[in-house]
Specification:
Layout (H helix, E strand, L loop, with lengths): L3 H16 L6 H41 L25 H5 L3 H15 L2 E6 L3 E6 L2 H10 L4 E2 L1 H7 L1 H4 L8 H14 L2 H26 L9 H5 L8 E2 L1 H4 L15 E3 L4 E3 H18 L14 H18 L3 H8 L1 H30 L7 E5 L18 E4 L2 H7 L10 H31 L5 H15 L6 H6 L1 H13 L5 E6 L3 E2 L5 E2 L4 E5 H5 L2 H4 L35 H18 E5 L21 E6 L10
Bound molecules: protoporphyrin IX containing FE.
The site of protoporphyrin IX containing FE (HEM) has 24 residues, from helix 8, helix 17 and helix 23.
């Protein structure tokens, strides 16, 4: 049973003890010393590790018992119900488990079992309290806003994309950004600038669909736009703006035209291209050129998509450092971050050069957007085809002009973060909302009359004309369809805050500093306690009856001081493109009976896009000249 070393050690011990009783010579002393040295070596080489091993085992057993249902270093909340977790990792795996949609369903199941508040533990996050009550969510986001923050975990995990921008900022830094941005997102800007761009970009989608459906209507031909010179002038006209950032590009990996013969396109992909191009022009006056040829890949868009998908995986997976290193994903993230940053800095440096030349902040860029001449306003207040125009400053110009309380301006780094934060905020969210709306409008379970009512409203308000800021406000049913979509498929399906100081929630549950508190927007939108027995039904009428917006039970655009800055922007954009597409085309889902699978993201994409057949609208009594 004993190893050779242990026997030798005991021999050393016994020989040293027997010789200790007699006098020793120096030679014997040396011998004794060397034997003692050997003994220590053996102790170190054998017994000590055993001692350490034993200590380690006892400690591990203690840790295993202590954290038998929770993640390591998290103390469970004995006063709150919740699912038991696995030893040392708590509920980490089940909360990160794929497919993504199942996370929302699982959370909904836990609420059914444990009630409106439950707690669990997750590695990296510690104790996480899940809440489901609109009053509690309102308390966190509005009533006691200052007791909660985004916190370090959020900031560090998502740093490559958000940097110090508005999305991850807390405290004073957030306050400044919010104040500056609030001044920019106003009615005048929507009316004269963003609405015009939405219309023009929607027209490019129509041009593409016309090409697909073999119609030859193209008000902006491909050649007229790809040959346009790159714009650096202070005043930029429409044709100047349509500059593809990378004119020679490979075909897209994620294809838009899925089947040429039966005219099947991925509508979600089209909406991504539409919101990206729109944002390029609104953000810094240059289109990414995606809609000029939707079949060509735009490297920036590819890098941006991969980056957001990879970072969202990190957010849900505490072992990401290890797995990213193992799979080499960290290199991909670094390369994509560089592509995105390089692009942002290129835009900023161009503006700085213009600023220097003109002596005006940001270069004083104002975009003149022309869409044709000589029209008139119709009886309904709607502008007739071919008469629209607008002008305005882009986001970059407006942020370069903005100053903080001390009169200081944003640095290049600050501008880069701002650009990327707004791009992220404004691109995927609206594109996904639009995709889910087209899915809901055309799936087999939805009453046919919903689409009929929507078309009727579009035809009545627009009378065959183009949508404007004013018509978008008049289209109440269209807006209701969009909000109803976001209730069932919120673009931000889950949110989280860090508790900054101990607090008591409505209903009496205490939360403590350092805890995380989360609410599932996806689940709240389907909760029958909140929305009534028909909660799961797509029924836009509810927004025109009792459920008026804003309502504290609708949290898809958030609430309180950090409420979404772009909500009006988003629904005007959505109403514009929806109206222009439904004026001209009919859509048929390739799979009308099944819900699309959810993709991996911080937002709520469809994993496999939205394949639809597109054809020219047959019952159109209004014909719009183009
Ligand atoms: C369907 C479309 C959209 C939805 C559902 C949506 C939803 C949200 C949500 C839930 C938040 C809160 C995030 C948080 O603090 O945790 C938010 C914040 C924000 N959104 Fe949106 N958003 C949409 C479109 C847009 C657009 C188009 C823009 C701008 C162009 C925008 C700009 C912002 C900004 C700047 C914030 C940060 C506000 C702050 O922290 O003070 N959003 N949005």
């Amino acid at each position: 049973m004993f190893s050779k070393e242990a026997v030798a050690a005991s021999a050393v011990l016994s020989s040293s003890s027997s010789s200790s009783a007699t006098m020793t010579s120096p030679a014997e002393t040396n011998d004794l010393l060397s034997q003692f040295g050997q003994f220590l070596l053996l102790l170190h080489g054998h017994i000590l590790p055993r001692f350490l091993l034993a200590y380690f085992l006892v400690y591990s057993i203690f840790i295993l018992i202590k954290y038998r249902h929770t993640s390591i270093a998290a103390t469970p909340r004995s006063d709150l119900p919740g699912p038991k977790g696995y030893p040392l990792i708590g509920n980490t795996i089940e909360m990160a488990h794929r497919p993504v949609g199942s996370t929302h369903q699982r959370q909904m199941g836990f609420h059914k079992k444990y009630g409106k508040v439950f707690s669990l533990t997750v590695l990296g996050l510690g104790r996480v309290i899940h809440v489901r009550d609109p009053q509690v969510v309102e308390h966190i986001l509005k009533v006691n806003f200052w007791a909660y923050e985004k916190g370090g975990y959020f900031r560090e995990t998502l740093r490559p994309i958000f940097g110090n921008g508005i999305f991850s900022a807390d405290g004073q830094h957030w306050r400044w950004q919010r104040k500056a941005a609030s001044k920019i997102f106003n009615v005048n800007w929507y009316r004269s600038y963003t609405s015009t761009i939405f219309r023009q970009e929607s027209q490019l989608v129509i041009n593409y669909f016309n090409r697909i459906t073999d119609m030859s209507l193209t008000s902006l031909t491909k050649s007229s736009v790809t040959n346009a010179p790159e714009s650096t002038a202070a005043t930029v006209s429409l044709v100047d703006i349509y500059v593809p950032i990378s004119p020679v590009t490979p075909p897209r990996e994620d294809r838009v035209l899925l089947d040429t013969a039966s005219k099947v396109i991925d509508l979600q992909n089209i909406f991504y291209l539409f919101t990206l191009d729109s944002f390029g022009r609104i953000g810094f006056g240059e289109s990414f050129g995606c809609l000029i040829d939707p079949e060509k890949e735009v490297p920036f868009a590819g890098a941006f998509d991969r980056l957001t998908a990879n970072l969202s995986l990190r957010f849900n997976w505490p072992f990401w450092r290890l797995t990213d290193w193992w799979t080499g994903n960290d290199k991909q993230v670094a390369a994509d971050t560089k592509t995105v940053y390089d692009f942002a800095y290129k835009v900023i440096h161009r503006r700085r050069a213009l600023e220097e030349k003109s002596g005006v902040e940001g270069g004083g860029v104002v975009h003149e957007l022309r869409e044709g001449e000589g029209g008139e306003i119709g009886k309904t207040g709607v502008k007739k085809p071919g008469v629209l125009s607008g002008s305005g400053k882009d986001l970059m110009q407006l942020f370069m002009e903005a100053t903080d309380d001390k009169g200081e301006r944003l640095t290049d780094d600050g501008l880069k973060d701002t650009l990327i934060n707004f791009l992220l905020a404004g691109r995927d969210t609206t594109a996904q909302g639009l995709s889910w709306m087209f899915y809901l409008l055309h799936r087999s379970q939805t009453r046919k009359e919903v689409l009929t009512k929507l078309r009727d409203e579009i035809d009545t308000v627009l009378q065959g004309g183009f949508p404007t800021y004013e018509t978008a406000l008049a289209q109440k049913y269209t807006k209701a369809c969009f909000f109803e979509t976001l209730r069932l498929y919120p673009s931000v399906p889950q949110n989280i805050r860090c508790v900054l100081e101990d607090d008591t929630l409505p209903g009496g549950v205490k939360v403590y500093k350092g805890e995380k508190i989360t609410w599932g927007i996806w689940g709240m939108g389907r909760d029958t306690d909140i929305w009534g027995p028909d909660a799961e039904e797509f029924r836009p009428e509810r927004w025109l009856e009792g459920d008026k917006f804003p309502s504290t039970k609708f949290v898809s655009f958030h609430l309180g001081p950090r409420t979404c800055l772009g909500q009006q922007f988003a629904y005007i954009q959505a109403i514009t493109v929806t109206s222009m597409l439904l004026q001209k085309f009919e859509f048929e889902l390739v799979d009308p009976d099944n819900e699309p699978v959810y993709g991996t993201s911080l937002t709520l994409p469809m994993a496999n896009g939205l394949p639809v057949r597109v054809s020219r609208r047959r019952d159109n009594s209004f014909h719009r000249e183009e």
